Amino acid sequence: MDIKDTLNRLFVELFRDINNIEEKQIKTGEFANLTLNDMHVINAIGTGKPKNMSSVAKALNVTMGTLTIAVNGLVKKGFVERVRSEEDRRVVLVSLTSKGKKAFARHEKFHADMIDAIVERLSEEEKKVLSKSLEDLNG
After folding, report:
1. How many CB atoms lie within 10 A of CB 39?
2. Backbone dihedral angles phi then psi of residue 121, each to the nearest 5 degrees
3. Cβ-count burial 104-113 (b if 16+ within 10 Å, e if not)
4. pLDDT at position 101, please?
5. What distance in Å separates the CA atoms of residue 33 and residue 27, rounded to the nearest whole number?
6. Are strands 80-84 and 92-96 parallel, antiparallel or unpaired?
7. What string of DSSP letters covers the chain?
């Protein structure tokens, strides 16, 4: 098997495995009713000041209709709240509830633990090569 086939297989398996592990980590306790898509919306909203729906949709690369459906579900589940902008009442702002912030923190910890597990075995040079390679791939 040549390097291209090996890399292709590894990327496909890694993507699938990370998604599966991430979903299993999320779907426990008070977060059992969250999907991976829900977590992506929660992550895009973040813990800072409220964001308008269009900026969240753009960050997720989804339509406003798709985001509206997702946010409706997260509001019903108690993770997100909507408010009208004081400056422009036509603008809807979304933010995380305290429950949403807990889910966000748990998701961040999952990612931090995953990265720690990867880099702990690498030398400084290997970390640089891996980082550069992934930056190039992302570009």
Report:
1. 23
2. -95, 0
3. bebbeebeee
4. 97
5. 7
6. antiparallel
7. --HHHHHHHHHHHHHHHHHHHHHHHHSSGGGTT--HHHHHHHHHH-SSS-EEHHHHHHHHT--HHHHHHHHHHHHHHTSEEEEE-SS-TT-EEEEE-HHHHHHHHHHHHHHHHHHHHHHTTS-HHHHHHHHHHHHHHH-
Q: Which tokens belong to 66?
A: 């798709």
Tell me the one-letter amino acid at 135: E
Cβ pair 60, 40 in contact under 8 A: yes
Half-sphere exposure of 55 (CA within 13 A, CB side): 13
The label of the residue with tokens 């992302």 reads 138
Residue 107 identity (one-letter amino acid)? H
Tell me: the pLDDT tens digits for 40-95? 999 999 999 999 999 999 999 999 999 999 999 999 999 999 999 888 888 899 99
Could you tell me the pTM of the whole model?
0.84
